[in-house]
Amino acid sequence: MEKPSRPLVLGGITVKVATGCGNMYVQFNWSDGRLFEIFATLGKGGGCAVCQSEALTRSITLGLKYGVPVSDYVQQVRGIRCPTPLSFPKDKAVLSCPDAIARALERYGSLSVDAVVGLLRGANGTAETEGAAAGGEAVELSPEDVAARVLDETKEREARGMYEVERVHR
After folding, report:
1. Whole-model pTM above 0.85?
2. Domain of 33?
3. Does the N-terminal peptide bond of residue 7 adopt cis geometry, omega within 30 degrees of 0?
4. How far apart are CA 84 and CA 68, in angstroms?
């Protein structure tokens, strides 16, 4: 299997995730309708957490280029603990920097390009509701509302087996 080369320009999103080491910014880029690469930025360069996050995201990117499913990474990395977890609020505890990356991958990594565009439009205050699309009044959605809709769409597609079909055809 050949590793595809990186296009000169890729589109994507950047997600802010709070960790015990500070805010982490996880960037996702898509190519040919699928997640192609991931980066994580945390604090200042040179720290241990920074180099570990860089190593992890480089490894994930390499696997993505060869067609490894996002869910495999989530399963392997989710739940890894460090000595300084972000434990509040309890229902959203981030156990480590790798756990933060896995959580971001789980939520955004399997999105379709259309869902990403919808998310970007919502984050920029230009998304519309179904009523507006049908000629009703336009209503701005918060980024959280758009993210919830995208998550619902993702779950719906997974339930219908759409992501499994996409993985087979890579």
Report:
1. no
2. 1-110
3. no
4. 30
User: Would you state the structure tokens that stand for residue 140, as one six-digit string?
Assistant: 């701005």
SS3 state at 24: strand
Distances (CA, A) of 95 to 59, 108, 131, 142: 20, 19, 40, 27
Number of Cβ atoms within 10 Å of the Cβ of 140: 14
CB 128 within 8 A of CB 139: yes
Domain match, 121 and 85 both = no
Q: Is 68 exposed, middle or buried, given 0-12, 13-18 or 19+ CB atoms closer than 10 A?
A: middle
User: Helices 143-159 and 113-123 sit at what angle, rounded to 10 degrees?
Assistant: 170
- Considering the domain architecture, whether residues 124 and 136 belong to the same structural domain is answered as yes
The values of phi and psi at residue 113, to 5°, are -60, -40
The DSSP secondary structure of 28-78, one letter per residue, reads EEEETTEEEEEEEEESSTTSHHHHHHHHHHHHHHHHHHTT--HHHHHHHHT
Q: What's the length of the chain?
A: 170
Q: Report which DSSP code applies to 8.
A: S
Average pLDDT over residues 122-127: 60
Question: Looking at residues 73-77, what average pLDDT do you find?
Answer: 95
Let me know whether 116 and 141 are in one domain. yes
Q: Which amino acid is at 113?
A: V
